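Sequence of UPF0042 nucleotide-binding protein (Mobilisporobacter senegalensis).
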Amino acid sequence: MRFVIVTGLSGAGKSSALKMLEDSGYFCVDNLPIQLIIKLAWLTLKERSDIDKIALGVDIRSGQELAELEDIFKTLKSNNYNYEILFLDASTDVLVKRFKETRRIHPLSGKGRVDRGIEIEREKLEFLKRKADYIIDTSQLLVRELKVEIDKIFVKNEKYNNFFITIVSFGFKYGIPMDSDLVFDVRFLPNPYYEPELKPLSGNDKPVYNYVMANPAAEEFLEKACDMFRFLIPNYILEGKNQLVISIGCTGGKHRSVTLANAIVKKLSTLEYGIKVEHRDIEKDTLLKKH
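Predicted 3D structure, token representation.
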């Protein structure tokens, strides 16, 4: 039997996660009154042999009843009901944007500012985040990427690490990504833009990749940067950080930064963390020329 409590911040993807679990064969219940959790556990674990996977959605809508969860967890453990907690998180800026796009009202904002409601909710749910077995920060995740993470944990039963790394390539002329934790400038490398046969290509193409990485300085940068990341990441984790955004920039975000971002992902892929690459500006020059 697998009993999963799905919780997290409003707008962070809890409903999507429950739907994904339901599609994977989990018996899902959302927003059940807190007092009925033990009853549900007893009924399904003791009385329903046909149900072997349960996902229960719990969030801020439970109001003051949330305070009773501590006692609920103790009761579950004392009765040998094993449970896991999945916590969906996201940055305040991303959540504000999502609420504005969907025109939804945050449950704690009322007529006030959405960001204030989010911060209040974050404080109220902090005890659940501390207890969570899995924390997924959806700030940089597409729906399909969230599904990959959900499947990895709850379908394939693979080992999961709560720390997630996003490597972003970008062009300085379009601005530094606002959510960057670390920013690196690779404009010190020769620019393939000035090579006629390489100009229309990108760092995703082998000729450009080979051109950039043939420079000894590129290889040295890659080695030194990845050594630093290997040092920093465990220390970030000790401080409670669960996401790291590393931004690699060149002039237009098409050649050098794309190449190095791809090389870094390849180099760090052996670490036991979630990692993905995003090329923010790779198509912008082409789009601008069309207009």
